[in-house]
Amino acid sequence: MEAEFINLIEDGGVKKRILQEGQGDLPIDGSRCKILYKGTLDDGTMFDSSLNSDKPYKYRIGKEQLVKGFDIALKSMKVGEKAEFKMTSNYGYGDDGDSYKNVPKNANLTYELELVNFKQPKKRKWEMTPEEKHQEAINKRTKGTATFKQLNYKEAQKIYKKALSYCTLTNEEGNELKASVQLNLSICCYQLEEYKESIDYAKKALELNTNQQQKLKALYRKALANIKIAELEEALADLREAFKIDSTNSAVIEELSRVKQLLKEARMKEKEIYSKLFQQKLYDESEIEPKKIEIKETKSEGSSCCDPNEKIEEETQSKPTNENNNGQIQEEKSDVREQIKTENNENKIVEESVTSA
């Protein structure tokens, strides 16, 4: 016995009869559906069909890609369901009809529809409840981990950052998820040689104070990054804390041993450098002390001391004496008198010669 048609809307403009049951959820506005369909008029004439295509027809609810009644029909179906729908012209091609498909004006339509599958539309972040955001963070974390395993660390980092933005729950479950994503970001940054960022994410995971296993991982991630930036004392402290949590963890034990050896080598090298510095002179003392003036000592007979008048005597000897100066002046005066006498004699001779002439 065939099922009877039921009204999907109050005015009876869209009626439905199930031909094959489906299962699962119902699609909503924005869902992307894959369907098979066939449309006929009241006289049985087929005006449209997707059955001649190799692939199902893709239809998005809310876009009214075909007729208005399609959205109402699909929102009542489950995946795998087949149904027959009767629609009045108000939910079909209306008063104008469709000349391209040979649908007359004010024509009633009958569709046979099969919902192959559909995808629910993704809500925007601000449209989600905290629980929905929590689930979205889990989904993105899973996607990020798959990308990380493919060694695509940069892309994985981007996905984990998106996952972190959805971690809004502040209960125990929410904090553990947030810490998990931060630890994944820490190791991504480490692989990308962003060591300070790796340390920051590990610190944030520690601040959430979640379970001991996550605390152990955070300390270990932080220690690895500290080793890379030569903060060996910090790394040693982190690894000792991690060792307190799990003294059987082989990775922690191995890194703890390595850091101790690195510190030992660093201290020995430092000691060697300081030892060399103390063994050699850091500067030449003669360059900073004033040079001493060497004074030659002249010993007089019967005395071993320097004569204090020696220098003064040398200076006076270098100048002409007053006696010599006086002699020189007398000679110069005598020469002048002889020159004047000669000139007078010459003038007298000239005068006499002029007179005689």
From TrEMBL:
The keyword Ligase belongs to this UniProt entry's keyword annotation: no
Protein's UniProt name: peptidylprolyl isomerase
Keyword Coiled coil included in the entry's annotation: yes
Chain positions of TPR repeats: 179-212
Catalyses which reaction(s): [protein]-peptidylproline (omega=180) = [protein]-peptidylproline (omega=0)
Coiled-coil intervals: 213-249
Organism: Paramecium sonneborni
Feature: compositional bias, Polar residues: 318-329
Enzyme class: isomerase
Enzyme Commission number(s): 5.2.1.8
UniProt keyword terms in alphabetical order: Coiled coil, Isomerase, Rotamase, TPR repeat
Domain PPIase FKBP-type span(s) in chain numbering: 30-119
Ranges of biased composition (kind: Basic and acidic residues): 308-317, 330-351
Pfam assignment, any one: FKBP_C
GO MF terms held by the record: peptidyl-prolyl cis-trans isomerase activity
Stretches for region Disordered: 294-357
